[in-house]
Amino acid sequence: MSLRIGILTVSDRSARGERPDASGPALVELILAQGWKVVRQAILADDLPQLSRLLADWCDSGEIDVILTTGGTGFSPRDITPEATQSILERPCPGLAEAMRQASLKITPHAMLSRATAGIRKRCLVINLPGSPKGAIENLQVVLPVLPHAVQLLQEDPDAEIGHHELR
User: Fold this and answer.
1) Which strands, in side-by-side order, build the sheet including 124-129?
2) Which end of the chain is more exposed for a tag (fewer CB within 10 A), N or C?
3) pLDDT at position 168, please?
4) Is 21 helix (H, G, I), strand (E, B) or coil?
5) Which CATH number is 4-161's, of 3.30.70.100, 3.30.413.10, 3.40.980.10, 3.90.79.10?
6) pLDDT at 115
């Protein structure tokens, strides 16, 4: 199954051109290595209304299966990615964020400072990732194995449940 991915970097400095975006390109590389497509990519400042609007537009377009945000998930007063994400979601998916934090805690105690969230709007899954390239890749690798099945379920693919209800 080829997934259609949107990658959104949330960073004031990258949006102003003061710092190159390293996380977005790192995520693109990993997504392409899976044989999936990056259909949208953008860099936005930490601006709640603008970020909420773009996330909703991407979800509602029907062109994207999974949106990956990178950045804005920490404790800084400007870190508003989880709030923007939650404002547009119809259903939360706490297991994804919990799994990422649990795996990250094996690497760094700073993982418990992550406020990342995940959820569904229409048939689109939105997942917040850390802003560093290393953290973004490590967290994405945790949820990568379940993304095709998640998208199958969102699309109501009749084959999504094959093997889940084996008779014994």
Assistant:
1) 37-44, 4-10, 66-70, 124-129, 118-121, 91-92
2) C
3) 46
4) coil
5) 3.40.980.10
6) 98
pLDDT of residue 166: 55
Q: pLDDT tens digits, residue range 106-151? A: 999 999 999 999 999 999 999 999 999 999 999 999 999 999 999 9
CA–CA gap between residue 124 and residue 149 (Å, rounded) = 13
CB 59 within 8 A of CB 126: yes
pTM over 0.85: yes
Write the DSSP symbol of residue 144. G
User: Taking Cα atoms as reference points, which of 96, 85, 82 lies closest to residue 54?
Assistant: 85
The angle subtended at Cα 65 by Cα 127 and Cα 97, nearest 5°, is 20
125 Cβ contact list (under 8 Å, min separation 6): 65, 66, 67, 93, 118, 119, 147, 150, 151, 154
User: What per-residue confidence (pLDDT) applies to 1?
Assistant: 83
CB 152 within 8 A of CB 4: no
